[in-house]
Amino acid sequence: MKIPREVPLMTLPNATLFPQALLPLYIFEPRYRQMLADALDSNRMFSVAMQKPGTSRETPSPIAGLGLIRVSVGHRDGTSHLVLQGLARVELAEAVRYKPYRVQRINPLQAPPCDNVKVDALLAKLRELLQERIRLGLPFPFPVMSPSQPEIGPAPPSFSPKEILNYLDSISDPEQAADLVSCAVLLGAAERQTILETVDVEVRLRRLIHFFLAEIRKKRKGNEP
Q1: Which of 38, 78, 111, 224 has its Cβ near the most Cβ atoms within 10 Å?
Q2: Is residue 113 within a helix (H) or strand (E), and if so which, with residue range?
Q3: Given pLDDT bands bounded at 50, 70 and 90, which one contains residue 157?
């Protein structure tokens, strides 16, 4: 799929869009209604960026997710529900325009080659931590795109923790595996954005492991009598 040089941009608080993730959105602002209509009439793509924390103005974080509109359901009042599927990490370049909605030039980000032996060891550790999360009853809150479900309805599918593990085992691409785990498991917006901004796969996996270890330690401490 060809990635355009410039796309509409939606800036949202606490929002991240990973490759292969599904992001349900409710479109109600007039500018985003127009953006959706224009996107549906063209390549069905737009980017979602997290608003920079601590800023009152609508300032997007420099790394965003490019998404494809998989389904859009319009309502009589002009609002819409849609599901966006993540396609790629992108770096935001200069803004092309700001009205009626923001359009931004983008640069797709490609992960550099990685050490397969180190990455395999990190993936094994990640799976071990995911199993520990299941044992401790920690949540798997976010939907992802399953290769066995290429078409979706108005609501994105959800997957059980064991399905996430089985899906992880079936993935041969470590980058895709890291993104799957990130979008399906990480609860904190800051942690998700950190992983989204980490292009190197080995570093990404190490940071994921760090986040999960901290979460598991906190849960264990809370369970102590």
Answers
A1: 111
A2: none
A3: very low
Distance CA 105, CA 150 (A): 29
Q: Identify the band that residue 55 occupies on the pLDDT scale cut at 50, 70 and 90.
A: confident
80 and 132 inside one domain: no
For 76-125, how does the pLDDT look when each residue is reduced to its tens digit (9 = 90+)?
A: 999 999 999 999 999 999 999 999 999 999 999 999 998 899 999 999 99
Say if residue 203 is in the same domain as residue 136.
Answer: yes
Query: Cα dihedral angle (168, 173, 176, 178), rounded to 10 degrees?
Result: 70
State how far the Cα of 188 lies from the Cα of 194, in Å rounded to an integer: 10
Residue 163 has pLDDT above 90, yes or no: no
Q: Indicate the number of domains in the chain.
A: 2
Q: Calculate mean pLDDT across residues 142-170.
A: 55
Helix (H, G, I), strand (E, B) or coil at 64: strand
Apex 18 CA angle, 31 and 8, nearest 5: 25
Do β-strands 6-12 and 45-50 pair in parallel, antiparallel, or remain unpaired?
Answer: parallel
**Residue 177 sits in which domain range?**
116-223
What does pTM read for this prediction?
Answer: 0.84
pLDDT of 152: 37
DSSP string, 180-219: HHHHHH---HHHHHHHHT--SHHHHHHHHHHHHHHHHHHH
CATH number for the domain spanning 203: value is: 1.20.58
Domain at 46, CATH number: 2.30.130.40
Please tell me whether residues 14 and 91 are part of one structural domain: yes
- Is residue 1 situated within a structural domain? no
